[in-house]
Amino acid sequence: MPDIQILSPHVADLIAAGEVVERPASVVKELVENAIDAGARTVTVEIRGGGMTYLRVTDDGCGMAPEDAGVAFLRHATSKLRDARGLESIATLGFRGEALAAISAVSHVELLTRQQGTASGTRVTLSAGEIEEMYETGCPEGTTMIIRDLFYNTPARLKFMKSDRAEGSACVLAAFRCALGRPDISVRCIRDGEEQFFSPGDSRMESCVYSLLGRDQAAKMLFCAGGADGVKVEGYVSSPGAGRGNRSAQHFYCNGRVIKSAALQSALEQAYKNTLLVGKFPACVLYLTLSFGAVDVNVHPAKTEVKFTQEKAVFDAVYYAVRSALERESPAAAVHISAGTQKKTEPRADFYQTMSAAEYRTKQSASAKREVQYAPPKPYPAPGISTNTTFRSPTVAPAAPVRPPMPRPVPAPAPRPEPKSAPQPVQTALETFEEKAPAAVPEQKARIIGEAMNAYILIEKGDTLLLIDKHAAHERINFDRLQKQTDPLMSQTLLSPVPFSPGGTDAEVLRMHADSLEQMGFEIEPLSGDDFMIRAVPEIMSEKDAAAALEEICRDLRHGGELDVHAARDEILKTVACKAAIKAGWNTAPQELLPLAEAVLSGEVKYCPHGRPVAVTLTRKELDKLFLRIV
Ligand code: ADP
Ligand code: MG
């Protein structure tokens, strides 16, 4: 049986070609990467017939000398790597010297290239890897590579190609990914005569992201920056409300190279924990910069898989950068960041400014007695809101016997503000700031208008109307508070224990997470078989919610799959937080709504633990549009 033969170079080339050039999109990727390595500022990608019949990449990079132009198509011919040591720190996208050999082995190639600063260029044509013609010619500085009839001599491969449409889209996507990775290079992509995208190449990340992702997507992205231990992270991540149905909008770059990395994907997604809807994935464009020696790109022929020598450091850098971006997000910004304003914004402290309680009192008595002088206002970055007398909405009947959350007297409503004078907030909104220094009277104050449908708190702030889902906001506040708690939750014994008989799977889930449930204040006694008795529930929950809460917890834990203790704890807390929160439809005292509104306005809460937004905004412009005041 063994009759070993060395394959002919031609067959060996075809096999090697298969590794690098799987489909037209791989050709696009390799050629654009070559253009980038050549120092191009402008790259044009043009495809026809799904990239199979015609594919052209033009650049204004360094070009090739005539003697290099022919050699470039030989296997292992590269100008980017000299010896084995060079492999340890690769600064270029290419280094294997295989792409041009592979591409030319399975197509007809035409190369036009002229070195920068030389008088004339070179034209080379090849078929199936063999040079057919080569002569001096006039052409622009830089390189143009035309690939025709891809896979014409490998019918087996040709059979695997999808429709022109699918292959064409994959080509555009390959060029798109390269373009998104290099804000300093202008990339244009044309398919069957139509421009698909164009990036300006002005070195600004935001204009790159804006031009490539489009206005709508860009508007939902948050600027993100951070890094430590030699890893720099910059870019944009989607706001949690703009989660996607899959991971296709996650773009990671390492030193300008498109990369796939399970570690980075997991760092990104963990940063969104408890803020994203189930089944949704964050989108991102993240640029990582680290020393060339800290990353091994020589792992896979397509060079998209990499190995980090310090994976933990890279993970942490991404995780914390994304987390801080999400924490900085302001409630109004969550819905309305225009590409122009989504630059490196600091938290908009001015948005939440208010007076301190001390200043308020001073002002109160000043206006009452007209004799107290108070100090000129200083800027004061504390969060807060004010209410005025219109706070009492008809739906929240002030006379209703609603219990104030804290046993302190509710102060009398403030006198009506004088026309054009600074607003006179009522006391309740300001008591939180009692201990703080006198503050500026801000130009724009938030004002609670009231509550609609016993569900939504309405707030006016400058030219923006904010609607807060009171249940979602309260749920998040509860969740954050519970999560911070390290001791077991306080438990309340039920007056009459509730029998609980979940199905087999849920009974198993209950047994598996018994410890976590106990820590959270549940006391569940196993009876025979799959029957249980609920004897105690967390103190903050109502007795009557016991069975429903446990059912929900079982379902969440079941869907969660293999959860570690922390994840299981979070799942349980979500339900506890939800059950302990005020509900839509309830009559809620204004005093109870205030802390919710404050927490939202301060940016402390943005999404409920299930990922639903706690607030939405409507700008004056949007309202004006609705009323056709403007078009
Ligand atoms: P690699 O990129 O791994 O070096 P390739 O087969 O892709 O291998 O390219 C071989 C060589 O051809 C490169 O090292 C480079 O010197 C030259 N080359 C390819 N494309 C270009 C280009 N667009 N501009 C200038 N030189 C190029
Ligand atoms: Mg290359």
Written overview of the protein:
Residues 332-442 have low confidence and may be disordered. The chain is built from 19 helices and 23 strands. Helices cover 32% and strands 21% of the residues. The strands form 5 sheets. The protein has an 8-stranded mixed beta sheet. A 5-stranded mixed beta sheet has the order 9-10-13-11-12, sandwiched between helices. The protein has a 5-stranded mixed beta sheet with strand order 16-17-18-19-23. It is elongated. It is of the alpha+beta class. The protein has 4 domains: 9-198, 2-Layer Sandwich (Heat Shock Protein 90); 214-327, Ribosomal Protein S5, domain 2; 335-368 and 381-409 and 424-475 and 584-626, MutL, C-terminal domain, dimerisation subdomain (formyl-coa transferase, domain 3); 489-580, Ribosomal Protein S8, Chain: A, domain 1. Bound molecules: adenosine-5'-diphosphate (ADP) and magnesium ion. Adenosine-5'-diphosphate (ADP) is lined by residues 30, 34-35, 37-38, 59, 61-64, 72, 77-80, 94-101, 143.
Instruction: Please name the fourth-level CATH homologous superfamily of the largest domain.
Output: Histidine kinase-like ATPase, C-terminal domain
Tell the overall outline: elongated
Strand content: 15-25%
How many helical elements?
19
List the helices and strands and how they pair.
Elements: H1 9-20, H2 24-37, E1 42-48, E2 54-59, H3 66-71, H4 99-105, E3 108-114, E4 121-127, E5 130-137, E6 142-148, H5 155-159, H6 164-181, E7 186-191, E8 194-198, H7 205-213, H8 215-219, E9 221-228, E10 231-238, E11 250-254, E12 257-259, H9 262-271, E13 284-289, E14 295-296, E15 307-308, H10 311-328, H11 331-335, H12 357-369, E16 386-387, E17 446-452, E18 456-461, E19 464-469, H13 470-484, E20 491-500, H14 504-512, H15 514-519, E21 523-526, E22 532-538, H16 546-560, H17 565-579, H18 590-601, E23 615-619, H19 620-626
Parallel strand pairs: 1-7, 11-13, 16-17
Antiparallel strand pairs: 1-2, 2-6, 3-4, 3-6, 4-5, 7-8, 9-10, 10-13, 11-12, 14-15, 17-18, 18-19, 19-23, 20-22, 21-22
The structure holds adenosine-5'-diphosphate and magnesium ion (MG).
